[in-house]
Specification:
Layout (H helix, E strand, L loop, with lengths): L1 H34 L9 E8 L2 H11 L6 E5 L7 H12 L3 E4 L7 H8 L1 H18 L6 E3 L7 H7 L5 E6 L17 E6 L9 H14 L2 E6 L1 E3 L7 E3 H13 L3 E3 L1 H5 L2
Parallel strand pairs: 1-2, 1-7, 1-10, 2-3, 4-5, 5-6, 6-7, 8-9
Helix pairs in contact: 2-3, 4-5, 7-8
């Protein structure tokens, strides 16, 4: 009887020890795996985006910045009002390697319009007409930027049925490590404004974001509107500032991305 009892005790101890060893091994492997940072499959870089219908100005900016190898994404709105020459310039920019993307057929504030009339009507009135009109002219758009940056999670969910990536906006001059204007592998991204009427307009600050991106394998996302030599109105990005940032990015080995590039990463 004693031998049988001893064998049972020994068997129970073996089982308990085996479970403990297995649990410890799994915990150790999980902890080690969690400690390893995910490998980035893309080099650090910068993504310049511009909104609205300032096509002639974007075309002039490209003449200045092309020698730096820059690329940008142009989010177009009011497409039904564009001239033949403007559409031709958009094709020129697209052929240069830039992205042509959507910003609403009538530049409607998505949040206000959808709350008043519903998301389905917003999509039918401002998204589908834009995609159809641009597709007819040879622009297959895969990305979208919210007018006024007005968005919420429900809109994101519905618009991601029509686009690969959508861009919102973020503000403030805060520490680089706390900024939201980096690509993090998500289909919703946020750009930081570089028009000179924004309170965070500060070239040295923007360069700290580029430095942080390089050090941490990130992609900085900026957005502006009208690219001009002399910025004296709202929603204008000075060409001198843009050239300075492009030169800094190139000299520091940062890659220029478009919004559609992000969808391929």
């Amino acid at each position: 009887m004693k031998n049988l009892f001893s064998k049972k005790i020994a068997l129970i101890l073996i089982v308990v020890i085996s479970i403990f060893v297995l649990f410890f091994k799994m915990y150790s492997e999980e902890k080690t795996s969690a400690a390893k940072p995910p490998k980035k499959s893309y080099p650090p870089g910068v993504l310049f985006t511009f909104d609205d219908d300032y096509i002639e100005d974007w075309y002039q900016a490209d003449q200045l910045l092309h020698p730096y190898g820059w690329k940008a994404t142009f989010f177009v709105c009011w497409y039904g009002s564009l001239t033949k020459d403007q559409k031709s310039k958009l094709h020129f920019l697209q052929n240069r390697g830039h992205d042509i993307a959507g910003h609403g057929y009538n530049h409607l504030n998505a949040l206000k319009y959808s709350k008043e009339f519903g998301i389905e009507k917003y999509i039918n009135d401002d998204i589908l007409p834009l995609k159809a009109a641009m597709k007819k002219d040879g622009f297959s758009i895969h990305s979208f930027a919210y007018p006024d940056g007005a968005r919420d999670a429900e809109l994101d969910t519905e618009l991601l049925k029509h686009f690969d990536i959508i861009r919102g906006t973020t503000y403030e001059e805060i520490r680089p490590e706390s900024q939201f204007c980096y690509y993090e592998g998500n289909r919703v991204v946020y750009g930081l404004g570089i028009d000179d009427d924004y309170k965070q307009f500060n070239i040295p600050y923007y360069k700290t974001l580029l430095d942080y991106a390089k050090a941490h394998n990130k992609i900085v996302i900026f957005y502006g509107h009208k690219t001009v030599a002399n910025a004296d109105e709202k929603l204008e990005t000075p060409l001198s500032a843009l050239e300075d940032l492009c030169k800094y990015a190139k000299n520091n080995g940062l890659k220029f991305y478009t919004i559609d590039d992000l969808a391929k990463l």
